[in-house]
Amino acid sequence: MTPACERAALRYLHWPAHAPSRESDLISMHTSSSRPSGPAHPERSLFRPDIDRIEGYTPGEQPQETGWIKLNTNENPYPPSPAVRSAVILATEGRLNIYPDPLATAFRKKAAALFGVDPDWVLPGNGSDECLTLITRAFVDRGELVTFPYPSYILYETLADLQGVRHDRLLLNADWSWNRDRTRPLVERSKLAFVPNPNSPSGNAWTRHEIEELIPPAGMLVLDGAYADFADNPDGGDVLRTQAGARVILTRTFSKSYSLAGVRFGFAMAHPDVIRGLRKVKDSYNCNTLSLAAALAAIDDQDWMRANVEKICGTRARLIQALRGEGFHVVDSQANFVWATQSEGGHREIYQRLKDRKILVRYMRFPDAADGAVVDGLRITVGTDEEVGGLLSALKEVLA
Fold first, then answer.
1. CB of 316 within 8 A of CB of 338?
2. Half-sphere exposure of residue 332: CA atoms within 13 angstroms, side-chain side
3. Is the domain of 98 the same as that of 113?
4. Same domain, 269 and 319
5. What is the pTM of this model?
6. Nearest-angstrom CA–CA distance, 192 and 222
7. What tens digit of pLDDT does each residue of 342-375 get?
8. Fewer Cβ neighbours under 10 Å: the N or C end of the chain?
């Protein structure tokens, strides 16, 4: 876009505060040579105030050149099932001029069988992040409250801001446990509570009893299982079959354990009445033909996914041991990443020095945590053994 076009676009997005109400006034405003002198009309943005005042979610860095060891966005370092490639190629040879199945019937049947529910319990999405967006739009109105643990996935707060609703943080203890006295009053007032299990950036997982205590009495609990497949005891959705299950929505992504971050596919599971309501707010064809083909092939090859998960969990154990040997405190992770901190700090400097060596990890900082503390550290994705070996070698140089 040329500078002139950029200026024109900015003028379009910032309308005078006292805009003319008739077409003739609009024309005269732009053509009259006898405009009054003095200060210009104050301008107001055409965006909603909720959009103007927030900064928006910032994804992890995605370098476009080769030669990086990339351990910053929790992608799977291994390729997806070979069946995925075959399915996508076959789909490209099909009828791409025709809209995809708006209900993703074939995929819903596969997912439902895997989790022991009926297909009408499943809602596919353009990544699980879209499912989180749809849930926020469908359930929370002005004046109602969204809650989420903190430190945790910062997108939850962004979604509440985009919806223009109230939100509050469920402050976690320093050891990533819940302070029931602090969180319960907020949960009881919540219309929607987001809880990732395992949590990010810490990687810890909470028990089902702890999770069930977070179900709002007059609202919904969204149990975000983006990393559930990496846990020692993967969550099979049992909470949906409990008495409290009607108040719970589970979400899953294919970006992590299924190695399909580039495809953008996920799904939600909940009682059919909940799914029917969510369908009202989704885009008509929110999942495209190629992503549906990839997801169907991926979920059908559980052996491939589990083999990759086992490799990652083995590397995770070695990474945790090595980091602790270098003096880091590392949370016992149940995800495909680890949270590493040093008592003397310096995490931002470590991140930058690794980046100077073309190794990316995620430096994260959470101000205003429990008791006013600032929590910061390094979230490190578990890559291949070779990638983790390169990280550890560089880290020795950095720490020295």
1. yes
2. 6
3. yes
4. no
5. 0.87
6. 7
7. 999 999 999 999 999 999 999 999 999 999 999 9
8. C
